[in-house]
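Table 4 source record.
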Amino acid sequence: MKTKTAAKPRSARSASTPANNRPGQDKKDLAKLLFMSGDITQKEIAERVHITEKTLGNWIKTGNWGKLKKSLITSKGDQLRRLYDIMAALTTAIEKTDYGDTKLADMMIKYTAAIRNLETETSAGQMFETGMQFISFVDKDNHNLAKDITNYFDAFITKELNHKF
């Protein structure tokens, strides 16, 4: 019996041109992800996405990517710290009320859910960071394989972005 092999994603078909066949919005999304990673220069981003540095600069400026990047860097950890501080204060307040305040108990339930969501949710930024670390790991041993994985990973991230947004 013949087995079918899965077709390669469009971006994985050509190792030398990972983004050439994508519409403009996909290029912009990929550039934004690369920019948010913080580990790649704007020149490298422009080369990888096959756009000019001027175009990238315009996207960064008009999309306020700089502000977004700053908020992504600290947001999850800071939010969790704040939520844990609030939970500690709520616990102290509940202990002072002989455990009879239902408003405080409701607040605890809501904050517990918010913490659980933040701790278990994997953002596109986290997926991207993990993928880049893995690609760097592979690149040390096999550059060509790392290039192929990068193409697949770019297609995956683009799909995830389109799915989430």
